[in-house]
Amino acid sequence: MTPAPEAIDEVEELAVDGLRWLTGAARETPEGGLAWTTRPSDDTLNPTLYTGTAGVVPVLLDAWRHFDDDSYADAALRAARSLADSVDGFDDDSLYFGRTGMALVLRAVHEELGDAAAGAAADRALHIVRSRFDGTRWGDLFELMGGNAGIGLGALLSGDPELAVLALEPYLRTAERTAAGVHWPHRTGTDSRLHHISHGTLGIVLALARVGDATGRTDLLELALAGAADVVSRDEAGPEGFLVRHSTPQYRPELIEPISYGWCHGPAGDAQVFRLLRDLTADPAWTALADRCWHTVTHSGLPRRLRPGFWDNNGRCCGTAGILALACDRIAEQQDAEQQDGNGDGFAGLLVTDLTTHATRDSAGARWSNTEHRAAPTALEPCTGWAMGNAGIVRELLRFVRLHRTPADPDYTFTWPDHAPPRRSPSPDGVN
Question: What's the pLDDT score for residue 425?
Answer without folding.
Answer: 59
